[in-house]
Amino acid sequence: MGGRRGTRVRAAVTAGVWTLAAAVGAAVLPAARPTGPVAPATAPAAAVRAPATCVAPEASLRPSTADGPAVRRVKERGRLIVGVDQNSYRWGYRDPATGELSGFDIDLARAIAKAILGDPGKVVFLAIPTNQRIPALEKGKVDIIARTMTINCERVRQVAFSTAYFEAGQQVLAPKTSPVTAFDDSLKGKKVCTAKGSTGETELKNESHGASVLTVPNQLDCLVRLQLGQVDAVITDSALAAGQAAQDPSVRLVGKPFTTESYGVAMNLKDEDLVRRVNAVLEDYRRGGEASPWMLAYRKWLAADLQGITAPPEPRYRD
Predict the structure, then answer these.
(1) Helix runs in the chain, H state only
(2) On the CB side of 182, how many CA atoms lie within 13 Å of its CA?
(3) What is the pTM for the complete model shown?
(4) Do the domains at 26-32+58-167+262-301 and 170-254 have one common CATH topology?
(5) How far apart are CA 63 and CA 56, in angstroms?
(6) Which CATH superfamily hosts domain 26-32+58-167+262-301?
(7) What CA–CA distance (Å, rounded) separates 116 from 71?
(8) Residue 77 has pLDDT above 70, yes or no
(9) pLDDT at 19 (0 to 100)
(10) Taking a C-beta distance cutoff of 8 angstroms, is the pair 174, 234 a contact?
(11) Considering the domain 170-254 in this protein, what is its CATH number?
C-alpha cells in the first residue's frame, strides 16, 4: 500500500502490535513478580478520608518521612511495586530500542523508590490499563499508581492521591484534514474514542455534543482506531494527546483544553504514611528551580511537545 493511506495503516499496525505486546508481553520490569498481595494491613479507621464536601480534591496530606505500616511493608519486601502505562509516549512507554520502560512517570516512580529504598532500581513495574488503575490499588496489586491519573472528587473517595505533580486538560485529537475543530458541535454525528474509566469518558457522558462514543481499555487503542478510520476524533488529556501527535504527524490537537486537571500519584486509601512519604519525595523533586529533578525530567521528556511550562504545580495540603 502506498501513499497517505498506506502510511496511516502501517502506523496503525505498528501501534496495534505495540498494544498487543503490552497486553501479553513482559508487563513487569524487572522480571521477578511480587509474591503474594501487597494490600495494606492497617485498619480501615486509618484510611485517608476525603473531605465531606469536595472543593479542592488536589489537596493532599502534609509530607512526612516517618515510617508507618505501608512504608515498612515496602522496605521489608525490598521493592516498590508501581502501576504504570507502557503505551503513552513520553510518559510511560517501552522504548523499542532498549526494551526498557521510559518516560516522565517512570522517572518519578524511580525517584520514589530511591527515596524509600535507597536505590532507583528497586522497583517492579506492572502495566495497568486505564480502567484497572483503581481496582489494582483496592486489591493490593500495587503500592502506587504513577500513570497520568487525574485527581478528581469521585476518585478521592476511592483512592488516596499525592499532591499534584503535573497539570493538563482534556482536549480533542483529530486528523489534520478533519472538520472537527474543538470540543463543540463540530463533533455532531462523529464517532469519538476515549479510554474507559478516564476523565474523557466522564466529560463525554456529561456532554457528547451529538457524537457517538467508543470506549477502549487504553488511550493508545484510540490512536490506532483513529489511524484506521474507525473513529473521527479522540478525547484525552492534552499531555497524552501531544505525545500521540508526536508519534503520528497526520494528527493534531484542535481547540483548547476544556478542563483543568491535576495528575497525582495514587495509593490505597489506608496507606496514609505512604501518601505522606510520596509527598515528601515530591517536595524534593520540585525543589531547585530550573535545575530541579522535575524541570530536568520535563525538559527531557515533555518540553518538545508541551512548550511553555516554567515550573511544576504548587502543592496544596489539607492537614
Answers:
(1) 3-24, 69-77, 104-117, 133-138, 199-206, 219-227, 238-247, 272-286, 293-301
(2) 7
(3) 0.78
(4) yes
(5) 17
(6) Periplasmic binding protein-like II (3.40.190.10)
(7) 8
(8) yes
(9) 38
(10) yes
(11) 3.40.190.10
